[in-house]
């Protein structure tokens, strides 16, 4: 074993399991370096990743689909129109599943297609349909690599946010020497592992977020509700997922798309939220309770639509469970973050809730302001900590605020400091 191989084996051991739960789609195109993609897939599997391979027809001339199927342990996607036998999903399923799409080796042809939005086979369609980061590892003859068209295409892809891995220089299969070699699989995989695990301070933690308002039915067509839209909670869920957490989002009715990588549990009433939250609570590390829960519900829900009469209508309401209060009482190791939507005496009401509900901190906002609170893209809050701290923040986007809330929460989690 050479010193280089030994070093490679050591770093593989250090990377084992680091990509557990991550989905990587590898696009292999028709370059002689396609054989190296077998090693890349094998290494990514050893890091714990779930790896799916998409082969172009040309790539399949170099390495058979069977090889990739055996190494990846997954069916290999090749032809969009082939009769579906093993691959029981629509052709953009891999685009949705991917946490990262790596095209290695990437020919001049796939770079040109991706730069121009051409979608005429499984791989190019996936590249157009995915929202995941896309990496290209070009491998080709030096003249093709240096051609103005290829350089221009790579520039377009970079501008759109794709990552281009510099090819190595050296002896090429076309008996010339120069830039255009696919980097060694060990180097490529290490770069992938680093990128996918950097900035993931919540990896291994379970975060439970509640969002939106609950609705309490009066009869089959009417309900009691509130103005919450779920924006704040969805932003926290998205940010927690981006920081590597396992995220469960218990959401009242909301017209927002589910954030990537988040398990959404949809509920309608406070009692349903109560049940869903308690089901997830025991092994949760952090709860961010941004939902606006209805404190009361009608005692009786009419089975049929209530018809109007000449008289007024009195609704008898009864208390809903205070979910956060109950979580505070049952708290073992969980960090609890509450919200306080107030219209007056914001800080003093918030402090009272912080103490009563046994929270680590509370995010208080004055919902009577037009640019902060329900339905806005922005918020202006004060964060009051159980340690007596008070921090007032200026107006900012809800996604930015989500980051600040999670920075605070990370300081409260055992064994962590803010990122
Ligand atoms: N909350 C909850 N269950 C309830 C009511 C509130 O879990 N039945 C949570 C909210 O998600 C929020 C915090 O408690 O994180 C404070 O909610 P808020 O509506 O501001 O306060 P309440 O405790 O309901 O008190 P009040 O309505 O009297 O202001």
Ordered list of secondary-structure elements with their pairings:
Layout: H1 3-15, E1 23-28, H2 34-46, E2 50-55, H3 57-62, H4 65-72, H5 93-97, E3 100-106, H6 108-115, H7 122-129, E4 134-138, H8 142-146, H9 148-159, E5 163-164, E6 168-171, E7 177-181, H10 185-197, E8 206-211, E9 216-219, E10 222-224, H11 231-242, E11 246-251, E12 262-266, H12 270-281, E13 286-289, E14 296-298, E15 317-319, H13 323-330, E16 335-342, H14 346-356, E17 361-366, E18 378-379, E19 381-385, E20 390-392, E21 396-397, H15 398-412
Parallel strand pairs: 1-2, 1-3, 3-4, 4-5, 8-11, 8-13, 11-12, 13-16, 16-17
Antiparallel strand pairs: 6-7, 9-10, 14-15, 17-19, 18-21, 19-20
Helix pairs in contact: 2-4, 2-10, 6-9, 11-15
The structure holds cytidine-5'-triphosphate.
Cytidine-5'-triphosphate (CTP) binds at residues 270, 289, 291, 293, 295, 320, 322-324, 338-341, 353.
Entry keywords:
419 residues; alpha/beta; eight-stranded mixed β-sheet; five-stranded parallel β-sheet; 15 helices; 36% helix; binds cytidine-5'-triphosphate
What does this structure look like?
The protein is of the alpha/beta class and 419 residues long. It has 15 helices and 21 strands. The longest helix has 15 residues, at 398-412. It starts with a helix and ends in a 7-residue tail after the last helix. The chain binds cytidine-5'-triphosphate (CTP). Cytidine-5'-triphosphate binds next to helix 13 and strand 16.
Cα radius of gyration in angstroms: 26 Å
Largest sheet: 8 strands, mixed
Helix content: 25-40%
Bound molecules: cytidine-5'-triphosphate
What share of residues are in beta strands? 15-25%
| Order of neighbouring strands in the sheet with most strands | 12-11-8-13-16-17-19-20
User: How many helical stretches?
Assistant: 15
Total number of strands: 21
Given as residue ranges, the uncertain stretches (5+ residues, pLDDT < 50) are: 84-88
Structural class: alpha/beta
| Average pLDDT level | 90
Shape: elongated
Distance between the termini: 40 Å
């Amino acid at each position: 074993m050479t010193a280089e191989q030994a070093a490679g084996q050591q770093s593989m051991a250090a990377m084992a399991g680091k990509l557990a739960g991550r989905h990587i789609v590898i696009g292999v195109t028709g370059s002689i370096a396609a054989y190296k993609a077998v090693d890349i897939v094998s290494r990514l599997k050893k890091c714990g990743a779930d790896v799916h391979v998409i082969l172009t027809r040309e790539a399949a001339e170099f390495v058979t689909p069977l090889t990739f199927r055996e190494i990846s342990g997954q069916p290999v996607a090749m032809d969009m129109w082939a009769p579906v036998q093993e691959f029981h999903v629509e052709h953009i399923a891999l685009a949705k599943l991917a946490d990262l799409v790596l095209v290695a080796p990437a020919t001049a042809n796939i770079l040109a297609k991706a730069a121009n939005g051409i979608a005429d086979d499984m791989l190019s369609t996936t590249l157009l349909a995915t929202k995941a980061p896309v990496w290209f590892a070009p491998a080709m003859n030096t003249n093709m690599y240096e051609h103005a068209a290829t350089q221009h295409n790579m520039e377009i892809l970079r501008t759109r946010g794709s990552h281009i891995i510099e090819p190595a220089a050296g002896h090429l299969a076309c008996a010339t020497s120069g830039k255009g070699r696919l980097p060694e699989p060990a180097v490529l995989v290490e770069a992938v592992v680093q990128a996918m695990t950097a900035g993931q301070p919540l990896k291994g933690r379970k975060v439970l977020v509640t969002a939106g308002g609950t609705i309490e039915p009066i009869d089959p067509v009417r309900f009691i509700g509130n103005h919450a839209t779920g924006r704040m909670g969805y932003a926290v869920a998205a940010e927690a997922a981006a920081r590597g957490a396992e995220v469960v989002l218990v959401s009242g009715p909301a017209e927002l798309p589910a954030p990537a990588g988040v398990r959404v549990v949809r509920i309608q009433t406070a009692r349903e939220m109560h049940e869903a939250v308690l089901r997830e609570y025991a092994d949760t590390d952090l709860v961010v309770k941004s939902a606006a829960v209805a404190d009361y519900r009608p005692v009786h829900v009419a089975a049929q639509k209530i018809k109007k009469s000449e008289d007024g209508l009195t609704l008898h309401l009864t208390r809903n469970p205070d979910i956060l209060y109950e979580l505070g009482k049952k708290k073992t190791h969980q960090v609890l973050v509450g919200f306080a939507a107030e219209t007056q005496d914001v800080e003093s009401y918030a402090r009272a809730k912080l103490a009563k509900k046994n929270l680590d901190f509370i995010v208080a906002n004055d919902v009577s302001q037009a640019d902060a609170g329900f339905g806005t893209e922005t918020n202006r809050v004060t964060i009051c900590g159980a340690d007596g701290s008070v921090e007032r923040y200026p107006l900012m986007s809800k996604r930015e605020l989500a980051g600040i809330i999670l920075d605070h929460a990370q300081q409260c989690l055992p064994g962590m400091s803010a990122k």
